[in-house]
Every structure is written in structure tokens, then in C-alpha cells.
Amino acid sequence: MRAAAVVTGRVLLCLVGMGFGAPVAAQPEGDAAIYAQRHFERGAELYREARFEEALAAFRRSHGLFPSPNSMLFVGRSLRELGRNAEAVEAFEAAVLEARLRAVDEPRYRDTEAAAEAERDALSDQVGFVVLERGEGGLEGGVRVEGRAISPERFGLPIPVTPGEVAIAVGDAAPQRVQVSAGEELRVPLRAVSDRAAPSLAVAPSGGGEGWLVASGVAGGVALVGVAFALALTVAADARFSDLQARCGGLCPPDEAGAIAEGRDLELAGILTGVGAAVIGAGAVVLLIIGLAAGEPSLADGRVEF
User: What is the largest CA-CA distance in the chain?
Assistant: First the structure.
């Protein structure tokens, strides 16, 4: 790589001198074009000195200020010298496309296109490729391959990657991980955010509902017995008073005082029994409600299964 860089550096001197590095005279006037040229020349100096990280930054600044196929070509070359071959292939491909478009009106960029194409192809067997296939659903948050943002326009096209395990992420979700070999092209269906199943909660009965339901049933039974007993006492009291009414026909003599007291006791007992049955019945309803509520599903020990 270092020998290639030296040769390329010599060629670069000629290119810059010939105006190959996005010459100002051939560009629209403005500070952007002027500073793009200066950053390109600075990048050329750094590249010749094998200071590839700094050269990369300078070429990118130049291209950002005023896009030129030549600055993108040297972005690719700097990345290659840094061993970042997948990114270098991307840059060479971008340089090919830019040069092809510019060469329609500016034929000098045909040389740039040919150089970028040859250097891209020379690295193709040292990288792998993934082809992203978009399924149904949204891809909120964007898509990243090895940390690089991938625009939707690139779906269905080969994207260069470093051989080995490749992380493909949609939004901020956990990435898909695939294995890609050098020279291999792997198709990868994207898992859309909306297609992922929402976390399912593991639920289990709380275990306390059955006891409440049993207690409710017992209380309800007692209440029913109480109501029946109260009705029986009321009927007995009515029968006793009806018998006294028939015998006395109005005011009862003193010797019937015991019978009158007995009837009143029966009547009072019936009332009290009825009230007690009503209270127990209300309690049974409360117990039933508690039992039903306690028997509803709840999070099992606070755990969540995905």
C-alpha cells in the first residue's frame, strides 16, 4: 500500500498542477470553490507525506465545500491506505458516478472515472457485500451497516462491508448480525420496526382468588339459610298473632299474655335474623368481588418475556 501511495502521490502532483483537482477557473465563482481547491491541495501534500488520516479529512472538506470526482477519488485512496477497504470501495464507486456525470460536459473527468473504476475493482475481492431487502413496515430511525448510515435509495444495491460479522441496525433497535466472506454478496431482508412483535408479558394467576371465592360461597350459603330461617320465624309469629286474634277477637285477657310475648319474640327473632342474613349476604357479594379481582392475570413475579 505504501509503494502504491508513493506512485499515486507523484501522479497527484501532476494532476494538481494540471488543474486535475477541481480547478477554480473551471468552477462557478465563489468562496466555496476557492476553499475547496485549497483543501484539495492541502490534502495532496498530506497524502504525499503518508499522513493519510489528515489527508482524508482534507479531501472530505474539499468535497463537502464543492463536490469534485477527483476529491472523492482521493477520499477512496486515503481510506484504502488506512486499511478501510469497504469504505474505500464506496468512495471509488461514488467517484465513478460523479465523474461519469461530469464527463458529459467536461471530458477530462473520463480519466478520473477510469481510475476510480479500476481501483474499485482491485479491492472488490477483499471485501464482502450485502444487499438490503426492504420488507413491509416502517424503518423508523434509519438503517446503518457497520455504523454507516444507508439511504433507502441504496436498498437492493451491493453495499461493501468488511469480511466477517456485519452489524445491520434499524433505528435504535438491536442490530441484526450476519457473516459475510470476502468476495461474497449476501442478501439480507431487513426486519422492519413495525414487523417486530411487541414484548409479550408472561402472566399468571396471583393464587389468592380461589380462597376469596370459597369464602364468598360459604357466606352466601349462610345468608340464604338466614333468610330462610327469618322467613320461617316471621311466618310463625304471624301464625301466633292470627291465632290470638281468632280467640280473643280484639283485646286479649291477661291469661293470654304469655302467648302474646311468645309471638312478639318470634317476630323480633325473625327481624333480627333477616337483618343478619342481609349483612352476611352483602359480605358474600364483597368477597365475590375481591375473589374475582384477585383471580385476574398479573405479571408473574414481575418478569417480562420477549
Answer: 144
